[in-house]
């Protein structure tokens, strides 16, 4: 993906669960969940009419604007879900600008709802953090913001059998002997592995805030002169993401009761600050490191290469939800109910009906996203006739 805005759910290591067989299907055949790698395999069933969703005008207006921005991608990208083809979206994309004064009518006219698997959804939240930073290293502002290093490559390690060379080669580097080896871990980078490369284009004041900005995948640096630098995801070191909230939960550090911390971003940050040595070791368990680039424009970029929008953009697993498709959420967290547009993804967003809602920037965004954990139902809005075509009816 071009811009990974990773979920706060990665901190908590929570995931949706439940059957992936559609409600309308016959008695299920036992299937290994690891084999369910697309919406087609999960099962697709018709949902209620779009007219019956009770779509609010402001919500639909914002979603329509985001949908229009997504249309160029919808009309050219291959849909990894197997649900749609680029030409399926053409009629809706062509008509969309004419409905700016009546967005609910647009969605009712051109879309039908589909339930992927059971539709049992789990949603978290992410935001664009703003932290203190500087362009040049100075006392109290010394956490490097690195661009992509030129020795980060994709190469198969020596001895990899041809049969194992499926998909893309892993990220790594070439060592002194000419062999492909894993790239530097978070701990190695923090200890100076990239110190003399000249690729630090900015610095952050607080290592804890910078760690969480990396989890978000983009953010803002408030510079000493009062200006703001927006930074966005440019690459990653190839090491897997570890949700430290999940580790803390396993260790009995999160939850209710004496000595425990809330299972939210705020609670996790409190633990790290109050226990600096243990907190540093905990953060280093997440070996993934994010490289950044300076951004221009009016918002952080999502995986489609367009800005994500507050309360309109949602991160999805593109194997189960087409990029650019509208998504209807009905959760036990009412603030996240309504229409969203799939414009992003993230390292922790895996599986059918797994979503990460975007809340913009500012303290309210931080508060909502940091505590967002909602369960309920999800519907995908697809061009009319899609479900019938998929089911051969």
UniProtKB/TrEMBL annotation:
GO terms for cellular component: outer membrane. Pfam families: 3D, MltA. SMART domains: MltA. GO terms for biological process: cell wall organization; peptidoglycan catabolic process; peptidoglycan turnover. Keywords: Cell wall biogenesis/degradation, Lyase, Signal. The keyword Cell wall biogenesis/degradation applies. Its EC number is 4.2.2.n1. It comes from the Bacteria. GO terms for molecular function: hydrolase activity, hydrolyzing O-glycosyl compounds; peptidoglycan lytic transglycosylase activity. It catalyses: Exolytic cleavage of the (1->4)-beta-glycosidic linkage between N-acetylmuramic acid (MurNAc) and N-acetylglucosamine (GlcNAc) residues in peptidoglycan, from either the reducing or the non-reducing ends of the peptidoglycan chains, with concomitant formation of a 1,6-anhydrobond in the MurNAc residue. InterPro entries: 3D_dom, MltA, MltA_B, RlpA-like_sf. Residues 130-293 form the Lytic transglycosylase MltA domain. Residues 1-21 form the signal peptide. This is peptidoglycan lytic exotransglycosylase. It comes from Pontixanthobacter gangjinensis.
